[in-house]
Specification:
The structure is a homodimer of 180-residue chains. With 180 residues, the first copy, chain A, is mainly alpha-helical. Chain A folds into two domains: 82 residues, Arc Repressor Mutant, subunit A, CATH 1.10.10; 82 residues. Helix content of chain A is 61%, strand content 9%. Chain A contains seven helices and two strands, in the order αααββαααα. The radius of gyration of chain A is 21 Å and the shape is elongated. Chains A and B meet through helix 1, helix 4, helix 5, helix 6 and helix 7 of A and helix 1, helix 4, helix 5, helix 6 and helix 7 of B.
């Protein structure tokens, strides 16, 4: 079992879902801390059915369209719970080409460097707005226990992007001063 | 050419290095934003020599030990510079099992959740100390232009880990209050 299959079990545990629903969730709510391609998701769904960790019912939509709605089996719930209580792995390592290039920044002209920082800031800011909008839907005082994870993860994403933005601004300022 | 090969070109451009030096750098200075296994590094070195982007001289160390010291060829420098000025890719996506489990936190007991947060905080704190110690070697007022990238990346790592720690503390507090 890979982590993606546990992620799928966890999502189906929250709610009965179709493969299409799952793909949407991976592109949206979960995108900050896990990613999966549509083809991977459908491959995993087949495996999880074969292993009797999930099951599906077929629902007819409109005239001819069939869709499979997946739910967890008791064995699937057990497997999810066992994975949930496993020990945490080491901190994840990220790969970031922007930072790699900054490490070699003596090879960039001030103009090139400025452009790279501006583009990065724009990208971070756009993502920050997206998460901030979602976070604004919550009122911290009335978060339901079953939404606590979602809420905290959104807060984490916003906090992290805000600190990245500040770092980008301060770094560019520092480099500009250094090169004067 | 994959990103690892450009990373190797950039590092050899900074200084003439052996494969052993490179492995050490990947485990240390570069670890926050790129990772590579020793075997991958040696495979890339061979390819880069075959493509005439780097060359080496053999130096005898002690009685019998030979070591290869790599340096950039003019073609290698050109290739590095072309990559440096390429457009930035989209923001990197990270995969984080801790956050994935937090998303499914309704399946964890308060004690399990508390333990997960404490372990994560310990890991983040240990890494923060490591980067903070390195950052303390710099005096911001006298950073040399060729060290500006290193300095800013260390500062970025420290800023990010500090904001993660704050988020972990606040999140645990939030969850404890919610469950009372």
């Amino acid at each position: 079992m890979n982590t993606l299959s546990y992620a799928i079990l966890g999502l189906i545990d929250k709610d009965q879902l179709t493969g299409y629903d799952l793909t949407k969730i991976f592109n949206d709510c979960v995108a900050d801390f896990w990613s999966a391609k549509q083809s991977q998701i459908y491959t995993e769904l087949k495996k999880l059915v074969a292993e009797e960790l999930i099951e599906f019912k077929v629902v007819i939509q409109g005239e001819v369209l069939e869709k499979k709605i997946y739910s967890l089996t008791p064995k699937g719930k057990e497997t999810l719970l066992a994975w949930m209580s496993e020990e945490e792995p080491p901190l994840p390592q990220s790969k970031d080409i922007f930072k790699l290039r900054l490490y070699f920044s003596e090879n960039l002209s001030p103009k090139q460097l400025q452009e790279k920082f501006e583009n990065r800031s724009k990208a971070v800011f756009a993502l920050l707005l997206r998460y901030q909008t979602k976070l604004n839907e919550y009122c911290p005082e009335t978060v339901a226990p079953q939404s606590a994870g979602d809420y905290l993860l959104l807060k984490g994403a916003v906090t992290s992007l805000e600190s990245q933005l500040r770092w980008l601004e301060e770094s560019l300022e520092f480099l500009n001063k250094l090169r004067k």
